[in-house]
Amino acid sequence: MEIWINPACSKCRGAISLLDAEGADYTVRRYLEDVPTEEEIREVLERLGLEPWDITRTQEAAAKELGVREWPRDADARDRWIAALAGHPRLIQRPIITADDGTAVVARTEEAVREALGRK
C-alpha cells in the first residue's frame, strides 16, 4: 500500500494517523517532491476508475492560471489534463492510497481510508 501525500495537508495527516492506528503496512510518497510521471498518473487513474479532471484541484493557483475549469472533459483532452497534473503536482487531489489489490481510493475521509484498508 502506498499513500500520496502533501505533509502540509490536514486530510493527509489524518489518513496517516488512521493508517498508523490500524497498524497498516504502507509507504509514503510525498508527491510534491517525488512527482508522479504521466504514466504513473494514468496508472493511478485506472486504479481509481476516474478521469484526470476528477482528481484535479481546480481552486489551486496553477489551475486558475492554466484555465483548467474551461478545458473540455473528454477523451480528446485527457492527455492535456494528465500533462497538467504531472507538470503541476499541487493540482492532484490528495491523499491517494493505492491498495494492495490493485485498486486505489482518494482518501479524504475516514471511510475512504478504511475502505482502502479493507482491500486485500
TrEMBL record:
Transmembrane segments: none annotated. Belongs to the ArsC family. This is ArsC/Spx/MgsR family protein. It comes from Streptomyces kebangsaanensis. The lineage of its organism: Bacteria, Bacillati, Actinomycetota, Actinomycetes, Kitasatosporales.
